[in-house]
Specification:
Structural class: mainly alpha
Number of helices: 16
Largest sheet: none
Number of strands: 0
Shape: globular
Order of helices and strands: HHHHHHHHHHHHHHHH
Strand content: under 5%
Length: about 400
């Protein structure tokens, strides 16, 4: 833990980081349930409005990649505060947009500031807590899951009460702006001290490359599985759309529960150990889906198991990287850029192959991606043993 920061400030800053990640999760998840309403506003087809997913992903990729060096040079909290204010402003404008091109520009900006926030908060929480960051990092991503879970519930509640699309976007925007106004008044973890740590524990290029491959493969598997498990379920003879939707919800619910469970576990287990448990659990769950999904019970168990073991993998990867090297803003941005590419490319590959090959390509592609991630992790650890100067 960073002993230079008073305990009161340490934990109040952590709470604000958690609030900002609830905001980030809600802003990320609100697009899906409102896509038809946005199509109606802009007189677009669903095929046309689906471009928003690509636009926001591209903006996120640019924002995450470009922002890393910024956090290494300036105080981080004003940057995150500005990103939150821009995000809140864009959320206000979204339901007012009447043209698709204007809406695409808005969501591109949203993607950029989401990338800036994601890299920033993940970098600063490591600088804030130092070697004791694992439970706080897992908690951070659990709160992101809370945001992604509550956003669809907000949409359902607003629409059920005959509310408008304006309310769906404006209610989260109010919270986002409030957090954006608070965070600049908290002292930022020192980027000057961070540069000193970077000299003591430098990021070795081969380690950065291998970790980026792991982030690419795992995130692609997670987003691809989450995006296509509904379609995979509907291809089963006994599954109807309602059951498929329930299985999809069970996957995301297991993901959130898994992140909460991982918080105390991360205190007891090393990141290295947790990652091997997660990789093995994911592989077994996917194999259950691949070979036994003809029975409904195994379809449920496979989807829930995959979500549970995927839950803590991403934050644990960040914890593992922190144990090997200093996590500068630049290094963090490279990892997130790799994740962003994986989240675009691997789900796209699944979508292209479902019709010519069949729905099992979803499981096979996810399984291949997880095998790639785990094999690369093995190579990383073999490589680590040849570098005794780096702390594990």
């Amino acid at each position: 833990m960073n002993t230079e920061v008073p305990h009161k400030t340490l934990y109040s800053t952590t709470i604000v980081y958690y609030l900002s990640f609830i905001c980030l999760g809600a802003a990320t998840a609100v697009l899906g349930p409102t896509i038809q309403g946005l199509a109606s506003n802009t007189h677009s087809t669903l095929a046309q409005i689906s471009s928003l997913f690509l636009v926001v992903s591209f903006g996120y990729l640019l924002g995450s990649f470009a922002s890393g060096r910024v956090y290494d040079r300036v105080k981080g909290h004003p940057v995150i505060g500005a990103a939150l204010l821009v995000l809140g402003g864009m959320m206000v404008i979204v339901p007012l947009a009447q043209q698709l091109l204007f809406l695409q520009i808005i969501f591109f900006v949203i993607g950029v500031v989401e990338g800036v926030m994601d890299v920033g908060v993940n970098t600063l929480i490591v600088w804030l807590h130092g070697e004791r960051v694992p439970p706080f990092m897992n908690g951070l991503h659990a709160f992101y899951g809370i945001g992604t879970t509550t956003a669809p519930l907000i949409v359902a509640a607003v629409l059920a009460s005959a509310g408008s699309l304006n309310s769906v976007y404006w209610l989260p925007a109010i919270v986002i702006v409030l957090v954006g106004l608070i965070i600049p008044f908290l002292p930022s973890p020192s980027h000057i001290r961070s540069r000193q740590q970077a000299e003591e524990r430098p990021a070795i290029p081969i380690q950065v490359v291998l970790l980026t491959i792991i982030f690419f493969a795992f995130t692609g598997a997670e987003l691809g599985f989450g995006g296509w498990i509904y379609t995979y379920s509907t291809y089963q003879a006994y599954a109807n759309p309602t059951m498929a939707a329930s299985i999809n919800a069970a996957f995301w619910g297991a993901l959130t529960v898994g992140r909460l469970v991982s918080i105390p576990l991360s205190v007891k287990l090393r990141p290295h150990t947790m990652l091997w448990i997660n990789f093995c659990g994911i592989i077994v769950s996917l194999l259950v889906l691949l070979f036994f999904s003809s029975k409904a019970t195994f379809l449920w168990l496979g989807a829930i198991g995959t979500g549970f073991f995927m839950a803590s993998t991403f934050p644990t990867l960040l914890n593992d990287a922190q144990s090997r090297m200093h996590m500068s803003g630049k290094v963090t941005s490279i990892f997130f850029a790799g994740s962003s590419l994986g989240s675009m490319i691997i789900p796209w590959i699944m979508g292209q192959l479902i019709v010519p090959i069949g729905s099992e390509v979803v499981i096979l592609t996810a399984l291949g991606s997880v095998f790639l991630a785990s094999a690369t992790f093995y190579i990383l650890n073999v490589r680590q043993r040849t570098i005794p100067s780096i702390n594990q």
